[in-house]
Specification:
Length: 294
């Protein structure tokens, strides 16, 4: 299970880290409260702040972190049952994790839909609108088009519920990376693994822990790091990249992981350079590629 903390090292701020998290830096949008920028009711009335922010944080301008490549290695070693992410930055896909191994619990920028007639638009179509500083409107009905990320007040994708039901009972090690475990129903997934399944939290701060009264009464849900009866919950506090590198070292894949990160970052940089060069030299090629996508 992963949250925004796996992508902060790529330069994408999380929500809740004091000072540098998004919620601390939204004053310029003059919102009724910081969370409003991701609330569907507010978005329907005033979509501009979301699109301004989307431009700043647009996926595609960032490279996956070491932690993303660690998850890819888990899969390549045949150890990954599924990767559940709250992130909408698509960095798991960019890192090369196959789509069937990912559950994007809070949706993705990969596709977009008109809020009124539900017409679908591609990622390139949306990118063009976001970067031209316009609120994307539907070519069929003029409704506002929204990326398929889940706002507060919207349902999670069906795939989340279907996969969680069959995956979590089968889990024999749950790794939780870079999440404050505050957003439901995602946060409650930690309670759906078997009662003896070890749960490892790699995060800058403790998260998801049961309050001590409940723990003393052996009641309630959540992670239980401190009680004498704890035999399975571990909090490793520090950066996700450092924690994953340490795990990879212990598994004997440390050098493989380091090399994978270097090679992939070189490949992505080259690809980004080539794309921007082509689009400067042949702007019509960009237009043609987009119209083929429609
Ligand atoms: P959050 O509530 O902002 O919590 C992030 C957690 O990660 C905090 O506990 C931080 O201490 C911790 N953290 C931050 N950086 C690191 C690091 N480098 N190493 C280790 N720990 C770190 O974010 P959650 O994901 O828990 O909350 C769920 C929200 C955030 C979802 O709805 C997401 O869509 C949303 N979000 C996603 C992105 C993204 O796609 N990258 C960015 C910002 C917010």
């Amino acid at each position: 299970m992963a949250g925004a903390g796996i992508s902060t090292a790529a330069g994408i701020p999380d929500f809740r880290s004091p000072g540098c998290g998004l919620y601390s830096n939204l004053q310029k949008y003059k919102l009724p409260d910081p969370q409003a920028i991701f609330e569907i009711g507010f978005f329907r009335q005033n979509p501009q702040p979301f699109f301004t922010l989307a431009k700043e944080l647009y996926p595609g301008s960032f490279k996956p972190t070491l932690c993303h490549y660690f998850i890819r290695l888990l899969n390549e070693k045949g150890l990954l049952l599924r990767h559940y992410t709250q992130n909408i930055d698509t960095l798991e896909r960019v890192a090369g994790l196959p789509a069937e191994k990912i559950v994007e619990a809070h949706g993705t920028f990969h596709t977009s839909h008109c809020l009124e007639c539900k017409h679908e638009y591609t990622v390139d179509w949306m990118k063009e609108r976001i970067f031209s500083d316009s609120v994307p409107t539907c070519e069929k009905c003029d409704g506002v088009v929204k990326p398929d990320i889940v706002f507060f007040g919207e349902d999670l994708p069906t795939r989340f519920f279907v996969c969680a039901e069959k995956d979590f009972p089968k889990c024999d090690l749950l790794i939780i990376l870079g999440s404050s475990l505050t957003v439901q129903p995602f946060a409650s997934l930690i309670d759906r693994v078997p009662k003896v399944c070890p749960r490892l939290l790699i995060n800058r701060e403790r998260a998801g822990h049961r309050d001590w009264v409940m723990a003393a009464l052996q009641m309630g849900r959540g992670l239980d790091f401190d009680s004498r009866d704890n035999f399975r919950d571990v909090a490793w506090l520090g950066s996700c990249d450092e924690g994953c590198q340490m795990l990879a070292d212990k598994l004997g894949w440390g050098d493989e992981l380091r090399k994978l990160v270097v090679d992939e970052h070189v490949r992505i940089s080259k690809q980004q350079n080539e794309t921007s060069k082509r689009q400067t030299e042949y702007p019509s090629e960009k237009k043609r590629a987009e119209s083929e996508h429609q």
